[in-house]
């Protein structure tokens, strides 16, 4: 629905963004091809042993696609693919103040995947909101760089 945002709400969303969209795939090698065909560039493969995944990023405008391939049958991504097949896994939103956002979510009974803010591979801070509290979408919140 088209609705003109008030100037105030425009200003207050400036520090928010879709940081990336996570997609679970069986093979990075085959999954990346479609993006390269349409002219996007894909980063080198990077392994995250803690998450048991290998990933590439596909920058698209101001956001990125994150292709995630499991490196073990025990990984969260492997289990997701076994249960639901390849596809959209999570949406990552950048917020200006993660601590404040998490506190508000907790106060309002929102279900988080883990209680504590995690530290990612690149040192970024993140937390996951359970799909049961976010319209069926696994929501990752990461903090904006100031
Ligand atoms: Zn992610």
How would you describe this protein?
With 146 residues, the protein is α+β, with helices and mostly antiparallel strands. It has a single domain (17-143), classed as 2,3-Dihydroxybiphenyl 1,2-Dioxygenase, domain 1, CATH 3.10.180.10. It contains five helices and eight strands, in the order αβααβββαβαβββ. It has helices at 7-12, 28-31, 33-37, 76-84, 98-107, and strands spanning 17-24, 46-48, 53-60, 63-70, 87-95, 118-119, 125-129, 139-143. An eight-stranded mixed β-sheet has the order 2-3-4-1-5-8-7-6. It is globular and about 40 Å long. It binds zinc ion. The site of zinc ion has 6 residues, from strand 1 and strand 5.
What's the SSE blueprint?
Blueprint lengths: L6 H6 L4 E8 L3 H4 L1 H5 L8 E3 L4 E8 L2 E8 L5 H9 L2 E9 L2 H10 L10 E2 L5 E5 L9 E5 L3
Parallel strand pairs: 1-4, 5-8
Antiparallel strand pairs: 1-5, 2-3, 3-4, 6-7, 7-8
Zinc ion binds next to β1 and β5.
Q: Can you give me a brief rundown of this structure?
A:
The chain is α+β, with helices and mostly antiparallel strands and 146 residues long.
């Amino acid at each position: 629905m088209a609705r003109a945002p008030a100037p105030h709400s425009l200003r207050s969303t400036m520090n928010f963004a879709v940081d990336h969209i996570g997609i679970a795939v069986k093979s990075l090698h085959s999954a990346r091809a479609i993006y390269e065909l349409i002219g996007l560039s894909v980063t080198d493969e990077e392994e995250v042993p803690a998450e048991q995944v290998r990933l590439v990023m596909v920058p698209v405008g101001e956001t990125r696609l994150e292709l995630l391939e499991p490196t073990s049958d025990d990984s969260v991504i492997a289990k997701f693919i076994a249960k639901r097949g390849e596809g959209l896994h999570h949406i990552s939103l950048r917020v200006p103040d993660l601590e404040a956002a998490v506190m508000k979510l907790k106060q309002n009974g929102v279900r988080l995947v883990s209680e504590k803010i995690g530290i990612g591979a690149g040192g970024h801070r993140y937390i996951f909101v359970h799909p049961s509290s976010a319209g069926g979408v696994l929501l990752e919140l990461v903090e904006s760089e100031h």
